[in-house]
Amino acid sequence: MTFVQVIDYETRRFDEMNALIDRWAEQSSGRRTATHTMIGQDREARNHYVDMVEFASYEEAMKNSQLPETDRMFQEMVALCEGMPKFMNLDVVRDEHLNKQLARRVFEEAAMGGNMGVLDECFATNYIDHDVSKVESTVIGREAMRSDMETWRAAFDMSFEPMAQLAEGDMVTTVWNWRGTHKGPFMGVAPTGKTYEMSGSTTFRCLDGEIVEGWWHYNPGALQQQMGGSGSPYGT
C-alpha cells in the first residue's frame, strides 16, 4: 500500500531549506526509498509550507528514515523552521489520476470494447492527432480517430496490454503491447486468421476532462511484414 508522509512547517529561510533537500537527494542517491516529493506553499501565509513524500509502502518509508542522511537532514530542517514541524503519516486508500482514467477508457472501452460513443466523451471535437504512419501525419477532429479505430476493429479482434502508464501535468503516456487476430482485409491483405503482435506508445494531452491532442508511436511496417502484404491502411 502506498504511504505518504506529510510534513507541515513554517520557515523564513526556504531557499536554505530547498538547498538542504537537494543535498539530501544527492547524498542519499542509490539508497533512498522515496519515490515522489512535492512541496506546497500556502498562498495566504507565505512562510507556511507542506512537504509530501511518497513511498511504495510504510516499510519502505521506515528504511528511508533509518538512513544517516535522513537523520542529518531532519536535524538541519528543524533548525531552519519556526517551531517544530508537524508530521502526518498516511496510508493511501484511494489514488486516482483522472487523465490516466481518460486514456484507459480509450483503450479498454473503445478500442477493445467497441463502444465508439466513448470517443465523444473522451476526445475534444477539435482533437489533434499525430501519427507518422499516415500520409497526413497530423489530422484534426475526433471523427478521424473514430474512422481509424473502426478500420482496425474491422480487421482485427484486438487487445492492448498496458505495460506502463505515466502522467505528468496534462500529459499521459501509455506504453502498450498490441495483439490482433486478423479477421478482415487490412494493408491489402485478405484475412489470414493469424494472430500478430506489435508494441508502441501513445501520449495524450488532456484539458478540461477531454483529450485534446495525441501522439502515436508504433511500427506498422513491422506488422505489414508479419502479414506478408504491402500498402497501408491509410493509402500510402
From TrEMBL:
It comes from the Bacteria. InterPro entries: Cyclase_SnoaL-like, NTF2-like_dom_sf. Gene3D superfamilies: 3.10.450.50. This is Ester cyclase. It comes from Streptomyces virginiae (Streptomyces cinnamonensis).
